[in-house]
Amino acid sequence: MVLDDTLREIYSRQILMKEIGVEGQQKLADASVLVIGCGGLGAPTLSYLAAMGIGHLGFCDCDVVSLSNMNRQLLFSMDNMDQPKASLAEKRLLGLNPKLKTSVYDCVFDEQLASQLVPQYDIAVDCLDNFDTRFILNDACVNANKPFVHAGIGEFYGQLMTITPGFGPCLRCLFPNKKKEEGPKKPFGVVGSTPGVLGSMQALEVLKFLLGLPVANDGLVVYDGLNLSIEKIGIEPAAHCICRTLCDGRR
Length: 251
Description:
Blueprint: H1 5-10, H2 12-15, H3 21-30, E1 32-36, H4 42-52, E2 56-60, H5 85-96, E3 101-105, H6 111-117, E4 123-126, H7 131-144, E5 148-154, E6 157-163, H8 171-174, H9 193-210, E7 219-224, E8 229-234, H10 242-249
Parallel strand pairs: 1-2, 1-4, 2-3, 4-5
Antiparallel strand pairs: 5-6, 6-7, 7-8
Helix pairs in contact: 4-5, 4-9
């Protein structure tokens, strides 16, 4: 994406920042980001990534819009019921940024697709709602040496961590004893603004990584919206994790 006069005006407030400038804005325009999930976390993440000037967004979701999505998934409206989230998201994002390049994957994100897609992008974003698929993304990113930004939400609370293989822990370090989920997924309560906060933080982490700024890759950021607090818990790579092998190889 070439930064013409129109784009320079659109991103003028970012270009004014010493951490970004014209050079940084061009880096964002040249970047590609893969977002897995277009729902509660995916809606704000995709919106801000498009608005911040990311040049190429790929997004994957096989779900359709339902009434229970309306309290938090602001890419969609009441007249979108039962329509595919991924294709609807594309229309909304192109309305926000007509020069955005999009790649839509309206399908299940499994091991085969993950191994194909992850190497094609600069960074991925975990906007998922189940750990089975999160571990698929985690393993694909670690194997391809690609970073990704994890977030999880529930009720008033959320967590976030940026995984940079070879330089810190991954999701398997954080949840070493997590077993494969069985049976149908149970719904959980969430106030609408919680994914808005965490999704915005995920988009910010992506921007910082692409610009070479510090990211939260040495521990878990925990958000408490009920008491309005944020704390960070340090985490070391697990001794026998594949990501630890990468870390040791870079020392």
